[in-house]
């Protein structure tokens, strides 16, 4: 499936698919998944916390790729993709931090710890919040700010592998990887629900990015029309 | 607050966040489309 096909499905196939996936995910996470023995029901937050984190990595990855493609081609459709994905990434990073805080309070006794993974995730949030503020508030011409922000986004994305490796490199409250390894440490039922939740939330992220691209393309078109009218 | 409340708070924030953003996206798309249509209609009527 190419990108144009995906874009054309944004109001037809994607809404029902995403709707069904996210509803089934809620049912599996809150009802079907077995209760964890040590943490109890609050461990079910895994099914929104982990997918949100992965959705933010995917979104910022798309931002970095689109930024690189913009620098190579100077085609503003890639810039539109970068901006749309950055905003979606920011939302999922916020959801990761909030659901993590709500999970941390009953388990660790605190909402917030300056733990390496949480801190690097907060830095990721701030990096891309600055990216979006720069995009919207800069007085540089469109081409220059797009170029500057593309380079910034590619450098900013380097924080994602840092977040991933933080649990291996530093002492942290977060567990070592439990899913992304050859022998996942989760029981099969929990693993299946986790994988389904990840798929559902990634679908939501992709749909949001596609809708965001439509907004950016409409904004670019509006600017052109207004320029012609003047 | 008991552990179960944290679970529901987490899911509520997650769902509310997604729905709110979806509504924001749809409203923004509708506003932009309307604005573009209006300008194009004005241009057409000016031309005739």
In short:
The complex is a heterodimer of chains A (230) and B (48). With 230 residues, chain A is mostly helical. Chain A contains 8 helices and no strands.
Mean pLDDT across residues of chain B: 92
Work out the radius of gyration of chain B: 21 Å
Mind summarizing the main beta sheet of chain A? none
Number of strands of chain A: 0
Q: Which structural class is indicated by helix and strand composition of chain A?
A: mainly alpha
Q: Calculate Rg of chain A over CA atoms.
A: 19 Å
What is the number of E strands of chain B? 0
Distance linking N and C termini of chain B? 68 Å
CATH topology of chain A: Four Helix Bundle (Hemerythrin (Met), subunit A)
Q: Could you say which overall geometry of chain B the principal axes of the C-alpha atoms support? A: rod-shaped
The helix count of chain B comes to 1
CATH secondary-structure class of chain A: Mainly Alpha
Number of domains of chain A: 1
Please bin the fraction of helical residues of chain A.
Answer: over 70%
- Residue share in β-strands of chain A: under 5%
Structural class of chain B: mainly alpha
| Assigned CATH architecture of chain A | Up-down Bundle
